[in-house]
Amino acid sequence: SFPIVVLISGSGSNLQALIDQSLQGQLNVNISAVISNKADAYGLERAKQAAIPTHTLDHKLFESREAFDAELQKIIDQYSPKLVVLAGFMRILTESFARHYEGRMLNIHPSLLPKFKGLDTHQRAIEANEKEHGVSVHFVSAELDAGAVIIQASTEISSNDTAESLGNKVHTLEHIIYPLAVKWFSEDRITFHDGKASFDQTVLPESGIR
Ligand code: GAR
């Protein structure tokens, strides 16, 4: 089936959603490997429990971003993935790495892009008095959080929301839309041309998802 490699830095709850959906047969992909830049990322345990090969590549052991990304690329390409999935991978990528996987690397970002690129998105959305907040899945381009958006899901910000409560709501949405975007890509229903994503007509918006 469709080989993918997943990159993580932390808890890996999005990785778990992908594992669960592929075990349940809703998602027809094979997670060939999980790679973390942090040895203590809990997502590595999730991968091991699912008998998925894991690699740790500590960015602190490399003298430059270029050297780290070159080694990362080497490990990824051993698996010849059709798609690279960034699932909470908290590293800025070099232009050459981003270009190598252009049109075949996805990221999930916890905001309604183009709003709130970067970090601390939930707190910033509250402080900006936004009425809604959410999450985006996008193709990765060299510019941070700026690649073509594939799918977004939104939630209302209520007056008593904290960064934590809002983050929890967003995480629930992430676990729905990320597997969906990966499924569409694996079924060739999303394609990438000239920096833009295009969809086949069977990709229809679901309620709350746009
Ligand atoms: C997710 O909320 C994801 O959107 C975010 O990291 C979290 C990882 O959670 N990604 C970014 O902020 C990327 N800049 P997980 O490890 O439980 O999947």
Automatic annotation (TrEMBL):
UniProt: (6R)-10-formyltetrahydrofolate binding residues: R65, M90, R91, I92, L93, N107
**Domain (Formyl transferase N-terminal) ranges:** 4-182
Report which reactions are catalysed by this protein. N(1)-(5-phospho-beta-D-ribosyl)glycinamide + (6R)-10-formyltetrahydrofolate = N(2)-formyl-N(1)-(5-phospho-beta-D-ribosyl)glycinamide + (6S)-5,6,7,8-tetrahydrofolate + H(+)
- Is NAD among this UniProt entry's keywords? no
Pfam families to which the protein is assigned, alphabetical:
Formyl_trans_N
Name the residues annotated as catalytic in the UniProt entry.
H109 (proton donor)
PANTHER family, per the entry: PHOSPHORIBOSYLGLYCINAMIDE FORMYLTRANSFERASE
Protein name in the entry = Phosphoribosylglycinamide formyltransferase
The scientific name of the source species is Marinomonas vulgaris
